[in-house]
Amino acid sequence: MIRDATVDDLAALEALMRDTNMFSEDERAAFGKELQTLLWAAPDPAERRRLIIVGATADGAIGGAAYFGPEAMADDVANLFFIGVSPSRRRQGAAKALIDRFETHGRETGARIALIETASAAMFEPARRLYRRCGYTEEAQIRDYYADGLDKLIYRKRLRAAMLAFSFARLQRGAPASSPRSSDR
Q1: If phi over 0 gives left and psi between -120 and 50 gives alpha, with beta otherwise, what is residue 130?
Q2: Which alpha helices (DSSP H) does the chain contain, by range?
Q3: By the 8 A CB rule, do 142 and 148 touch?
Q4: How far is CA 122 from CA 110, 127, 128, in A?
Q5: β-bridge mates for residue 82, sequence order
Q6: Rg, Å, the chain Cα set
Q7: Which among 109, 170, 95 has a CA at the least distance from the CA of 180?
Q8: What is the residue-level pLDDT of the chain in tens, covering all 185 positions?
Q9: Are 51 and 40 in contact (CB under 8 A)?
Q10: Helical axes 25-40 vs 10-19, angle rounded to 10°
Q11: Got the DSSP string for 11-39?
Q12: Is 34 exposed, middle or buried (0-12, 13-18, 19+ CB in 10 A)?
């Protein structure tokens, strides 16, 4: 079951970040502050950033979580800011379910493309394999981004067909969409 996170999930979310062993103490602290802001804020139906959890148990533990929303400086781009799955729940479909929900939310809010950022460290190879299986392709690599020898990798997937405004405008002028006139170059 996937549901929106609530303030009652804060401790379990912080435990999840610690238990994944994929985030530094500084990263956990920064994300913890963002979680508190997000979860304590008054619910706003217009809010497009979402924090979801999967596999909550009776004792309050959670199987995984994802935090996503629009890219601030781009039109109609969804970004998966965080995804984490408890080591005990890995390889059971939790991460795939979270990615599917991220993509569904992106489509529902009009996103054209989805982005996932990760690091080049070997420990993230299982995540990168999952992204590729979900249809993402490596779009960019920023060398030495996180530290010397630790690159930032950006994965991309198109969520809806490209809007060919250029071709549509050309058709309105009576020019064929597939062969630009020399005056358009």
Answers
A1: alpha
A2: 10-19, 25-40, 94-108, 125-133, 165-172
A3: no
A4: 34, 10, 10
A5: 67
A6: 19
A7: 170
A8: 788 887 788 888 888 888 888 888 888 888 878 777 777 765 554 455 677 776 666 666 788 888 888 888 888 999 998 898 888 888 888 899 999 999 999 998 899 999 999 999 999 999 999 999 999 999 999 999 999 999 999 999 999 887 655 545 555 666 555 444 344 43
A9: no
A10: 160
A11: HHHHHHHHHTT-S-HHHHHHHHHHHHHHH
A12: middle
Cross-strand partners of 150: 147
Distance from C-alpha of 30 to C-alpha of 24, rounded to nearest angstrom: 10
Amino acid at 119: A
* Backbone φ/ψ region at 111: left (φ over 0), alpha (ψ -120 to 50), beta: beta
User: Which residue type, as a one-letter code, is found at position 6?
Assistant: T
